[in-house]
Amino acid sequence: MPWYTLLVLAVAAERLAELAVARRNAAWTRARAGVEHGRGHYPAMVALHTGLLVCCLAETVLAHRPFLPALGWPMLALVALAQALRWWCVTTLGPYWNTRVIVVPGARLVGTGPYRFLRHPNYVAVVVEIAALPLVHSAWLSAAAFTVANAFLLAVRVRCENTALTAVVPA
């Protein structure tokens, strides 16, 4: 269990690093007349991601979830792959990447890196991580509950992002 706690804390530290990058990028995009969209769902997104980390540990302790190597190791590999994909997205978008939906009018859509293959590859990383992180230590209730909650949130988020991009970014 101590190593799983360290894993969840490492993911939390990664989230804090994301927020630092996002804050810097938000200042950059706003300095270029960037417009924020979808502020209303942002607190729900923060709550979902924070709740996931808390529930991963709580379920593991309170429900005495065991580490099952046949499940845990593949899920750990998926968590690592999700992190790699997320940071590939961050580096590909550069100063345009953000945890918020901030769009600079007139900017072009990025078509390099993982964006060559998918319109929203960062959300693939999020979906994989939300399902896999709890399952590293058999927290299946957290995996199921947060996967469902995330599906609802992503429906709102992707629609918001697509609308924002269509409105201000030329094809």
Please describe what this structure looks like.
The structure is a single chain. The protein is built from 5 helices and 2 strands; from the N terminus they run αβααβαα. It is mostly helical and 171 residues long. Helix 1 (2-30) packs antiparallel against helix 2, helix 2 runs antiparallel to helix 5 and helix 3 packs antiparallel against helix 4.
Strand elements, count:
2
What is the count of DSSP helices, taking H or I runs of 4+ residues?
Answer: 5
Summarize the main sheet: 2 strands, antiparallel
Q: Indicate the percent of residues in helices.
A: 55-70%
User: Looking across the biggest beta sheet, what order are the strands in?
Assistant: 1-2
Radius of gyration: 17 Å
Shape: elongated
Classify the secondary structure makeup into a structural class: mainly alpha
The residue-averaged pLDDT reads 95
Low confidence ranges: none
Into which percentage range does the β-strand content fall?
A: under 5%
C-alpha termini separation: 49 Å
Task: Tell me the series of helices and strands, N- to C-terminal.
Answer: HEHHEHH
Main location: membrane
Keywords: Membrane, Methyltransferase, Transferase, Transmembrane, Transmembrane helix
Subcellular location: Membrane
GO molecular function, one term: methyltransferase activity
